[in-house]
Amino acid sequence: xxxxxxxxxxxxxxxxxVVEPIEPEGLEVLAPAPLQQALRLPELARLGFGAELPAxxxxxxxxxxxxxxxxxxxxxxxxxxxWIVAMDNPxxxxxxxxxxxxxxxxxxxxxxxGVEPAWTRYLILRFRYAAVSDEKRDGILELGFNLxxxxxxxxxxxxxxxxxxxxxxxxxxxxxxxxxxxxxxxxLQPILERALAQRVGRQLEPFLKGMRRRQERDLKRLxxxxxDLRREALERLAVLxxxxxxxxxxxxxQRQQLRLAAIARxxxxxxxxxxxxxxxxxxxxxVQTLELIMPVQRFAVLIKRRKRERLLMLDWxxxxxxxxxxxCEYSYTWERPREVCDEALHLLSPAAHGPCPQCGRAYCRxxxxxxxxxxxxxxxxxxxxxPLGSQxxxxxxxx
Length: 399
Ligand SMILES: [Zn+2]
Ligand SMILES: [Zn+2]
Fold this sequence. Notes:
Blueprint: H1 3-14, E1 18-22, E2 26-30, H2 33-39, E3 44-48, E4 58-59, H3 66-74, E5 80-84, H4 95-102, E6 109-132, E7 136-146, H5 157-165, H6 185-238, H7 247-277, E8 281-305, E9 308-317, E10 322-323, E11 339-340, E12 347-348
Parallel strand pairs: 3-4, 5-8
Antiparallel strand pairs: 1-2, 2-3, 6-7, 6-8, 8-9, 9-10, 11-12
Helix pairs in contact: 6-7
The structure holds zinc ion (ZN) (2 copies).
One zinc ion (ZN) binds near residues 356, 358, 372, 374 and 377.
């Protein structure tokens, strides 16, 4: 069965229908009255999911109005899932090497103190984004955090979720396990704003590139056209004698000068139109939350910078078989490497520990989120995120 057919079959069965697969790629459905109403179906219906439909079947596809009918039936169900899994959790071999490969610190030394089995809680959020300009692009963005330490799961995410979904869930974590608590919205909101903006930007990069190419092409066409008109008017002016002009020549000069002014005005207006045509509006909407609770191997890493030390915990995940990356505790970027600040040994991307644009003093955006500690210039969070190179608005709704 294709995934949509499978999903519809399971959903309808859950809603009390009797469902039989039929060929080619279809379902025969005997629906109870409430389901008939919700989906606008007769009591006995045939549905088709492939290119070829079974006889008398309605087509169910991602493009059909069936998406709305199914969404109406689901309503708010399926938005949140807590998934607790357990599995064999042997410690990985050569943890020193794993750490060396996984932790990239520019200005501090570190030492692995030990590796212990532990449990953690992952928060995995799914968003739908849409970018609208002269064209439209939409898609799904997944963002995951380890709530024990704020590490983002970028490279681990696919393997982790797919692996966990294949396991039988437990009703509750084993007694006595220590789990990180969930994050309150006040904590999550600023992190999401920074982490999402960059990731949406990354996902939209090809779309934005294509759009910029079209914009440049249109701008060049506009420029060339008006440049030709302008040259023509200038040539007409150039053939007029330089001395006294007769009445006819004076009129011609006036006409060409007016024409030049009109060309300049029109050019400016057309450039403005293009700017509007290619302005990008990006929206982001929360769709689903998955809380995944599972065992990990916890690496205790002692970080040293000058005379200070900080104990950092990093989890190695037995499903993804990888060590997570140390978070940038300001931007939550997936990019490496990390630096640590002098004051509190915060972990930072080089940009979040970078120089103030006004006075040049490097400072930690976690210690000083509001403004530069030397000159007082207000911190612009956008300046430490990966630049999009285009206008963007995001309204990340908190789950
Ligand atoms: Zn700091
Ligand atoms: Zn400054």
